[in-house]
Design brief:
Oligomer: single chain
Largest sheet: none
Strand content: under 5%
Low-confidence stretches: none
Number of helices: 1
Helix content: over 70%
Distance between the termini: 99 Å
């Protein structure tokens, strides 16, 4: 084999290894993103529940105030 062909083959193999590492990193990133998204969705759900509770308390106060 000539030197040029060996160098090209070496670069191709290094690119394959690099591609594999990039795919692993993407997979890790997707996992982290999913976890973070799940945390945010849970926090948003809790905020909606708190908002509903406050709305109900305000309604109760308004009804009580009208009956005074």
């Amino acid at each position: 084999m000539d030197e040029h062909k060996i160098q090209i083959d070496t670069m191709v193999n290094k690119l394959k290894v690099l591609d594999s590492r990039i795919q692993k990193l993407e997979s890790l990133a997707d996992g982290v993103l999913n976890e973070v998204e799940s945390i945010y969705r849970q926090q948003i759900k809790e905020l909606h529940l708190k908002k509903e509770t406050i709305q109900q308390k305000i309604s109760d106060i308004q009804e009580t105030g009208h009956n005074i």
